[in-house]
UniProtKB/TrEMBL annotation:
InterPro entries, alphabetized: RNaseH-like_sf
Domain of life: Eukaryota
Name of the protein: BED-type domain-containing protein
Length: 585
């Protein structure tokens, strides 16, 4: 019906359940036309007979919209579905588009070269939108990692922020560019260039990477510290070879933001600690025999269709096969096996031709899964993105330690295993980190609840008060001055406000007593809100890993000739959902 709005009245009168009556705008007077609800053939006959010239001369708004929307819709389909660019020249694809009815003149379908130019324009628009978004933000965090595919290395980077007005977590992919060489300078230089391209050099609170030695060395060498200037005064004068200095690349022309190591990757290292302990301890014999039987089941079910069908018919679910890229998959695979009763499990083992599990082995696997269950839950929490903040790290570790140690009395074969999960050793630098404590306390969901010892609470509370005392309310503009409009009399009786009326101590006390666990509560506490921006960073580098998972779907073996620049643009537009978010524009 929208096609006839310019010719017919907007008032539609249903005379019956099947017919409808409208008024023609082109005819003098009130010319009433009747048509079926499911068909507009009568209306089309009247317009073609009586107003043919008007119908042909007046451009249809729907046809104009169709012409303008066709390139964007095609680009959205190709990018979102990660299809090759040659799709636009595919005869079957063009046949589908030609079959779609449209009013007026159809838009010409683009060829591959024209379509590539249009994608470049869309990518430039996306970059412009991101830069405009970053200009309005004060604090942004990034993640970085290196991915290798088809003998090519790519540096991926994502940005994360919290909207200061709505407290909504935002994220975007910044780069997935080709890097050559593994030198520390190359990594540091590329990260700094990406930050500079988006104007983020002075806004990045931290960059999160994995525990790779290349990233650790790069940030150790190029990270800017407050003590650099002081140390320069105490250093002795040294002489260097000028020719050697000029022949090497200058590595001091840029500085990197603070560095955070991926918490999920560190937790995964604890899994390796547990495995090493089991391989070297007295439990190694039962561990090896139990896991070897599990591996035999996984191999049999994964390589034989008959065995796979047998598992489906007997257990009504498939066995989970461990994957090296999914860190908790080994625990999940063992949990799936231990969920099966021992009698049924041995029945399947007999049909597979595998040695049956003993009661001791089955109990060992049960206890192994019980001990590592809190670790896998913590791993999943820290790999979040939408509602995952830097302040979640310390409360997660505290709960993980308490729950793991609480299991010790219930274990028989693995009673000493919880002691191997050394959270404090792996996260020793983070346990006493000031920014991590402030980030956790300024999350209304936690406050001081995650701290069990009163002594630690008495240490963190003054820390928060001291941090608030160092902030000025002049720049915060708290939303408390909702008074009557000022007039000339009020201007005459103007006095200086007492800064002590709402001190830092009072704000901290009111915040800790306040109810509610949403971030919107921080709007009532301007100093706490400013400090809570420590939560801008993510506790892990999982977001950039998701970018690489997406890139693996774009850079397929059939598209290995895709240029690095084109691959980066397609991947970033897909990750940022550029066309999906701009559909209504």
């Amino acid at each position: 019906w929208e096609r006839w709005v310019s010719f017919l009245s907007n008032t539609l009168k249903h005379t019956t359940d099947k017919n409808i009556t409208v008024i023609c705008k082109q005819c003098p007077g009130e010319k009433k036309l009747s048509a079926a609800v499911s068909s507009t053939s009568n209306l089309l006959k009247h317009l073609t007979r009586q107003h043919r010239q008007s119908l042909l001369s007046e451009p249809s708004s729907s046809s104009m919209d169709n012409t303008a929307a066709t390139p964007k819709m095609i680009a959205g389909y190709v990018v979102e579905e990660m299809l090759p660019l040659r799709t636009v020249e595919s005869p079957s694809f063009r046949c589908i588009l030609n079959k779609i009815p449209a009013c007026g003149k159809k838009a010409a379908l683009p060829d591959r070269k024209t379509f590539s130019t249009y994608l470049d324009k869309c990518y430039a628009d996306m970059e412009m939108e991101l830069k405009e978004t970053f200009e309005s933000l004060e604090y942004i965090s990034t993640t970085a990692d290196i991915w290798t595919s088809h003998n090519k290395s790519f540096l991926g980077m994502t940005a994360h922020w919290i909207d200061p007005s709505t407290f909504v977590r935002g994220h975007a992919a910044l780069a997935c560019e080709r890097v050559r060489g593994r030198r520390t300078y190359v990594i540091g230089n590329e990260i700094e260039q990406v930050h500079s391209a988006y104007g983020l050099n002075s806004k990045v609170t931290a960059t999160v990477t994995d525990n790779g030695s290349n990233f650790i060395k790069a940030f150790r060498m190029f990270q800017k510290s407050d003590s650099d200037e002081e140390s320069e005064e105490d250093e002795e004068v040294t002489f260097t070879d000028v020719e050697q200095t000029l022949s090497t690349e200058s590595e001091g022309q840029f500085s990197l933001p603070p560095h955070l190591r991926c918490a999920s990757h560190t937790l995964n290292l604890i899994f390796h600690d547990v495995e090493k302990w089991l391989q070297a301890n007295e439990a190694k014999f039962i561990y090896r025999s139990a896991t070897s039987k599990c591996s035999a089941m996984w191999t049999k079910a994964n390589c034989s269709s008959v065995a796979s069908e047998l598992v489906d018919n007997f257990f009504k679910k498939k066995l989970i096969v461990p994957v090296s890229t999914r860190w908790s998959s080994f625990h999940d695979a063992l949990s799936r096996i231990t969920d099966i009763p021992l009698a049924e499990l041995n029945t399947v083992c007999t049909q597979f031709g595998i040695k049956c599990f003993t009661d001791r082995e089955y109990l060992f696997l049960k206890e192994y899964c019980i001990v590592l269950k809190p670790l896998t839950v913590a791993l999943d929490i820290l790999q979040g993105e939408e509602h995952c903040y830097f302040g979640i790290l310390l409360p997660t570790l505290e709960i993980l330690m308490s729950r793991t140690l609480a299991l010790q009395d219930e274990l028989k074969l693995t009673a000493s295993l919880p002691d191997i999960i050394a959270i404090k050793v792996r996260f020793s630098s983070m346990m006493d980190n000031k920014e991590a404590k402030l980030a956790a306390v300024t999350l209304p969901k936690f406050k001081l609840r995650w701290i069990r010892e009163e002594e630690k609470k008495d240490m963190v509370r003054p820390m928060l008060t001291t941090e608030c005392r160092g902030l000025s309310l002049e720049d915060q503009q708290p939303a408390q001055d909702h008074k009557n409009p000022a007039n000339s009399t009020d201007d005459f009786f103007s006095f200086e406000e007492d800064d002590c009326t709402y001190s830092a101590e009072t704000e901290v006390m009111e915040y800790l007593k306040s109810a509610g666990s949403e971030l919107g509560v921080l709007s009532q506490f301007p100093r706490i809100k400013t400090i809570s921006l420590y939560n801008t960073a993510t506790p892990s580098s999982a977001p950039v890993e998701r970018l690489f998972s997406l890139g693996n779907l774009v850079l397929t073996p059939r598209r290995n000739r895709l240029s690095s620049e084109r691959f980066e643009r397609l991947t970033l537009m897909r990750y940022n959902n550029f066309f999906k978010n701009n559909t209504a524009k």
